[in-house]
Amino acid sequence: MEFNIQEFMNGIIEKNPTEVKFHQAVRDTLTSLVPIINENPIYCQEKILERLIEPERTISFRVPWVDDKGEIQINRGWRVQFSSSIGPFKGGIRFAEDVNLDTIKFLGFEMVLKNGLTTLPLGGSKGGADFDSSNKSDAEIMRFCQSFMTELYRYIGPNTDIPAGDLGVGYKEIGYLFGQYKRLANEFTGTITGKKHNWGGSLIRPEATGYGVAYFIKNMLENTGQTIENKRVSISGYGNVGAHLVEKLDELGAKVVTASDPYGYIYDSEGITGEKIEFLKELWIVHRSPIKKYAEKYNVPYYENMKPWREKVDIAIPSSKENELTLRDSEMLVENSVLCVCEAANMPVTEEAVKYLKDNRILFAPGKAANAGGVAVSGLEMSQNAMHCSWSADEVDDKLKEIMSDIHKTCLKYGSEKDGWVNYVDGANIGSFIKVADSILSQGVV
Ligand SMILES: NC(=O)c1ccc[n+]([C@@H]2O[C@H](COP(=O)([O-])OP(=O)(O)OC[C@H]3O[C@@H](n4cnc5c(N)ncnc54)[C@H](O)[C@@H]3O)[C@@H](O)[C@H]2O)c1
């Protein structure tokens, strides 16, 4: 019997009616998998999809803390341990006001497949809280992180579940989370990645997601006989991912002309280069300041309440949040002859926009392939922690390049079409699914 995707999705929607981002992430994956599932009836017989979309464990908890005025605040925290079929659970923690179970489930599901592409033994999970750290004092952030970890620490460990940072969780938050974990668990292990280098972090981890995206785009262009040099690039965001992406693209000879936040974007026609890169890197990562400050300092245009996708560029890289690049944005990019759209954030391009880009044969890379460098270097941090050693920046960077190249090869293997165009969405989904599904099959009904 043929696999009926609509029927399957109806079941998921009925069971999880409010989780629309989770539906979107699952639908995107299943759409690629239909042929593989039909060719391998064992996946249906053994209920692999049903097992893949149901997290192994979901933890929801209260996070009480006291603000600087002495008032008690209550937030919600979650950890969704999605799949440990190819390794211990692994995935970041997101702190943002709009985080809910739907956000964490879609991100956790994406992690399972992303981690399956990295070539490393990493399962998938994700966590977070509806907490906005951008308007809190350091003392408030510390008290919040300590309360969050006081509950979470029971469920994580170096061989069980290894959290890391994500949106709203940088060095500062990782430090407070790790400090409290160490105190409660009475151990100094590699349970959290993204640590500072002087207390167990890996060199290149902060840069890894952005650098990895740049390496992946280089591979995509080279595969079509083009180079990255002199390409004009628009990005959104300028956080951990965006700022390091700008740095690596500049090094590879491309010119990034935009950066943005929820309130607007800047356009620097000469490119974000030289000392401007250092300024940009500090702006969000250190100061949590708005992008408008870049326009004021370097006297470049700032467009309030607008997104950068209306600018004419060769490459567009959404690097901030899910569903930020819409159908209308993708139409403008295609009208302006964009060559490549690459997701640096998780699921930043809407379903309609992805379809439009693919229908127009634009080179399009999904985040689960292109931004996997971050979690890959987190995996390398785990290895260094387990071996009680520290690799040089060049060693880690070389491994990162190799991993991104391997992910690209997987996409080519499973996503190349007859006319030579590569469907990177199918390539990433199929390549990873086969690895994860076959591991589930090997381990019995668990
Ligand atoms: N940090 C990692 O290693 C990593 C790895 C893989 C994927 N990601 C994904 O990349 C994205 C960015 O993560 P990050 O770690 O850079 O977060 P971050 O908090 O360091 O930076 C987020 C940036 O996005 C901007 N932003 C937030 N909302 C926006 C909006 N609505 N429009 C435009 N800009 C907005 C912020 O101003 C900030 O510059 C997320 O989707 C995250 O899940 C991160």
TrEMBL record:
<dbReference type="InterPro" id="IPR036291">
    <property type="entry name" value="NAD(P)-bd_dom_sf"/>
</dbReference>
<dbReference type="InterPro" id="IPR006096">
    <property type="entry name" value="Glu/Leu/Phe/Val/Trp_DH_C"/>
</dbReference>
<dbReference type="InterPro" id="IPR006095">
    <property type="entry name" value="Glu/Leu/Phe/Val/Trp_DH"/>
</dbReference>
<comment type="similarity">
    <text>Belongs to the Glu/Leu/Phe/Val dehydrogenases family.</text>
</comment>
<comment type="subunit">
    <text>Homohexamer.</text>
</comment>
<dbReference type="InterPro" id="IPR033922">
    <property type="entry name" value="NAD_bind_Glu_DH"/>
</dbReference>
<dbReference type="InterPro" id="IPR006097">
    <property type="entry name" value="Glu/Leu/Phe/Val/Trp_DH_dimer"/>
</dbReference>
<dbReference type="Pfam" id="PF00208">
    <property type="entry name" value="ELFV_dehydrog"/>
</dbReference>
<dbReference type="InterPro" id="IPR046346">
    <property type="entry name" value="Aminoacid_DH-like_N_sf"/>
</dbReference>
<keyword id="KW-0560">Oxidoreductase</keyword>
<dbReference type="InterPro" id="IPR050724">
    <property type="entry name" value="Glu_Leu_Phe_Val_DH"/>
</dbReference>
<dbReference type="Pfam" id="PF02812">
    <property type="entry name" value="ELFV_dehydrog_N"/>
</dbReference>
<protein>
    <recommendedName>
        <fullName>Glutamate dehydrogenase</fullName>
    </recommendedName>
</protein>
<dbReference type="GO" id="GO:0004354">
    <property type="term" value="F:glutamate dehydrogenase (NADP+) activity"/>
</dbReference>
<feature type="domain" description="Glutamate/phenylalanine/leucine/valine/L-tryptophan dehydrogenase C-terminal">
    <location>
        <begin position="202"/>
        <end position="444"/>
    </location>
</feature>
<dbReference type="InterPro" id="IPR014362">
    <property type="entry name" value="Glu_DH"/>
</dbReference>
